[in-house]
Structures are given as C-alpha cells and as structure tokens.
Amino acid sequence: MRTAVDYGAPIAFAVTYFVTKNFQTATWVLVAASALALVVGYAVERRVALLPLFSGVMALVFGVLGLVFHSDVFVKIKVTVVNGALAAFMIGGVFLGRAPLKALMGEALHMSDAAWRTLTLRYGGYFALAAIANEVVRLTQDTPTWVKFRIALLPLAIVFSLTQTPFIMKHMAKPDDQKTPEPPDAGF
Fold it and tell me: Which positions ≥6 away from 49 have C-beta within 8 Å?
C-alpha cells in the first residue's frame, strides 16, 4: 500500500498524459491523486510520513500553480525543487553535524553515526543528481520526453535504494552491540 501511495500520483499523471496528450488534464489528475495519496496514507498508517507529506504538498502546490497559470513549467520544476530541497537538507544536515536521514528512518535501522552520515551523503548526492538531470531534460527536451524521464526516476529511486542495501547490511548494529553494557567492577 505504501508503494501505491508514494508512486500513484506520478504514475497517474504519466498515464493520463500519454492517453490524453494533454498536460493540463494530466496536471488535474496529479493534483487529485496527490491529495488522495495523502488521505489514503493517513487512513492506512494513522500518520503521514514526512517525506511523502513534503512531496505530496509540493505536488499540490506546483500542480495548482500549473493549472492557474496554464503552464507545464510548474509541474516540471517541482521535481527539481523537491530533489534539490532534499539534497540540501541531507548534505547541509551532515555539514551541520546532523544525520537527517537517521532522524527520518532511525527507528527502522540501527547503525553507527558515521554510517548514517555516509548514507545521508549518498542520498543527498542522489537527490542532487536527480535535480540536475531534471533541469537538463526540462530545458533540452520536449514534454513527452520529460514525462518519460519523470517516470524513469521512479524505478531509478528504487534501484538506488537497493544499491545501498549492502552498505546498510554491513553497518547495521548486531544484536550483541545493542546490549546494555555492564557497569564497571566496583572493586569489592
């Protein structure tokens, strides 16, 4: 269900675009599907995870701007803004001595702070590259090519995450590492 909530809106947008060949109609679908995804995500989990909330709100904001101004630029730059903001959040957080990814996922994974910093920088780099690639495609290609690129980013994100699995597995805390340390010998 989480995958449908996370990827449903952009997929619905692309399908609508390629069926209707109308960017405005596809944008209406994007806005509606983004709102629906937020509602369904909350109904299923009784909370809204921070990243899907951010992405969903950005889709709503940029989608509505695109509809109001009858321009595809807003929907296209949303990808750059979201990925650029995530890159800045991840990389900037590490440079400020934080591990933002740990704050987002810390309950799910137990790793050392050094491993969290490395993983956070890797994700920050991925988001930065996705933002740059979006701008290159947006500025040099036609709309059908951009929509194909946008949809290609979805499985690419999954592939990138899968490539991080060996690193995560290598640095996950072992059950023995999580035991409470014994107090030092009192000497008597």
Answer: 41
Q: What is the dihedral of CA 154, 159, 161, 167, to 10 degrees?
A: -170
Question: What predicted TM-score, i.e. pTM, was given to this entire model?
Answer: 0.83
Residue with tokens 């030092």: 184
Domain count, the chain: 2
**99, 28: one domain:** no
Tokens of 79: 């990808």
List the chain residues with pLDDT less than 70: 1-5, 106, 175-188
Dihedral sign for Cα atoms in the order 16, 45, 121, 175:
negative
pLDDT in tens, 163-181: 999 999 999 877 555 544 4
Instruction: Answer yes or no: is 165 within a domain.
Output: yes
DSSP code of 141? Answer: S
In a domain, 188, yes or no: no
